[in-house]
Amino acid sequence: LLEGKVAIITGGASGIGAATVRLFTKHGAKVIIADIADEPGKKVAHSVSPPATYFHCDVTNEKDVRAVVNLAIENHGRLDIMLNIAGTIDTYKGSVAEYEMEEYERVTKVDVKGVLHGIKHAARVMIPNQKGCIISVASIAGILGGTSPYAYTAAKHAVIGLTKNGAAELGKYGIRVNCISPYGVATPLFAQLALNEEYSPGPVSKEDKVKMEALANGIANLKGPTLEAEDIAEAALYLAGEKA
């Protein structure tokens, strides 16, 4: 489906990002992982065949995002797919009356500014080619209230807004701009919300995965299926393909 396509995946060191790296590589894409978790990122890069390229990239730093996009052009001559998956979430989950604004700045710097950096620099190199695909990961928190902490909720609403604006502007250049809004998936990021603890990038333990899935399934409207990171990767694969 993606034979020969060049894709950058931010947040590709773990969770949904890592699942997407594996699936895109399987379908023939040349993948560049952009992340700040160097060891997990390199492990993911070397675990796929052909190996992905790992590039240390802090999405809050525009110079880093510019550099990884330039790397795609230097190594492959083009960028076909940009996936903005890197994200974080609030550690404070109490009342808004006691909310620390530093937390808001920290989260939105990654989840909003980082996504805008990705859209901006992907557009920069896609517009001359008159084609491309930009996909960002939002959340049901971008549609509903009360499911997640304040900064994360605001940020995911913003991602949907950025996606709509990007689609409205860039469509005339043949560039498709979409986002995916997942429910809770057992990833390191969701662990911070569901288990109320810091979680390092990399594989989630089986015990913690069971706990997170039990929590998510308990409050889900649709009973039966359990959402996996691979399901989100499949949605991204469809959106990145020519049939989307």
CATH topology: Rossmann fold
Range of helix content: 40-55%
Question: Looking across the biggest beta sheet, what order are the strands in?
Answer: 3-2-1-4-5-6
**Strand segment tally:** 6
Give the overall shape: globular
In whole angstroms, the N-to-C terminal distance is 11 Å
Element order, helices and strands?
EHEHEHEHEHEHHH
Radius of gyration: 17 Å
| Strand portion | 5-15%
- List low-pLDDT spans: none
Family: Belongs to the short-chain dehydrogenases/reductases (SDR) family.
Protein name: Alcohol dehydrogenase
GO molecular function, one term: oxidoreductase activity
Keywords: Oxidoreductase
Summarize the structure.
By secondary structure, this protein is α/β, with parallel strands linked by helices.
